[in-house]
Design brief:
Layout: H1 6-11, E1 18-22, H2 26-41, E2 49-54, H3 59-66, E3 69-73, H4 85-107, E4 111-116, H5 121-129, E5 134-137, H6 145-151, E6 156-159, E7 169-171, H7 178-181, H8 185-195, E8 203-208, H9 215-227, E9 234-239, H10 245-250, E10 261-265, H11 271-277, E11 280-283, H12 287-296, E12 300-302, H13 312-322, E13 326-328, H14 336-347, H15 350-362, H16 368-379
Parallel strand pairs: 1-2, 1-4, 2-3, 4-5, 5-6, 6-7, 8-9, 8-11, 9-10, 11-12, 12-13
Length: 382
Amino acid sequence: MTGRTHGQAAGRGEGTFALFAGGGTAGHVLPGIAVANELTARGHPASSIQFVGASVGNDRQLVERAGYAFTGLPGRGIQRRLTIANLAAVLGIARATIAGVGLVRRLRPSVVVMTGSYAAVPCIVGAVIWRVPMVVLARDARAGAADRLAGRFAKASAVPFSATDLPRATVTGNPVRSELLAIDREADRPAAREQLALPQDRTVVAVFTGSLGSRRVNRAVRGLVERWGHRTDVAIRHAVGSRDWQDYARDLPEPAADGLVYQPIEYEEHMDLLLAAADLAVTRAGGATVAELAAVGMPAILVPLPIAPRDHQTANARALVEAEAAILVPDPELDANRLESELESLVDDPARRARMAACATAIAHPEAAARVADLVERCARP
């Protein structure tokens, strides 16, 4: 599937069906790509689908790898406290809004799909000014500021949970990439472990907390690796994140040669393989992550990001916790002691992990991308 280049997309607006707006993190971009893939499977040309997102981060890489045109807008998110940096952020958003309004006018899409964050704001304004129908693709149990702004004007809101507070809402679930939906953990585990150089005969723990990573999780994992250095029944694959990778890599914990298998990496490039290979995960609780864990049936220890707006990650985590598919550990409570205690109870109890996996898949929404695509097609203007 190959979309037009950025230059071709920006130069003319004929034939644009859907404009996906938002980004800044993979959790904002990947659900949009899942819906775009569903639309192309229904016959919409890849060249009729455009993405607009943040010029910083990995938005462009993710979108163009999927085969769609991408336009990056300036600006970054506003910090949730008074800082001088916020003045530059506001100016950047203003510049981006002017560009976004012009882009919507030039592309003249049949529908604009909002995937959230500050990067969506310019196209929200553009869609309102040029009267383009909007669909909000919400990812979290509690809607963010951009989603709530778009929701005031949108024809429909696709929400992951019935409690998500947006108007004109349809519960669709959170769209998950087709390659993750295709995972059969029992059948795919041996090959996935072989490709990731993980042992076949150990309990594999996957640790990942987004592209930047989490300093608190990293410290807890370091302490755990030092304690479990002689364990011969566990392997840990740990995505440290770009923010702390250089410092972390300079002083890696070193398990015994014949003990714990420990794989620290900067960023997980093969999430499909990791989710097929692992027995359980330690991770944050973003909407996309929670949906992916449910889709593949992965037991998890969830450590919600404490500064997430409206504490939405804790609300997301509760969906898995209440289904008995995950354990929630508040970020301030996580250290090596707590991580060891929670992990040990799962590593040493395969039957409990199996029950948690079954509970996770029971609340999954594998049809979410199709349901969102239905809304997008229904709301699009002829």
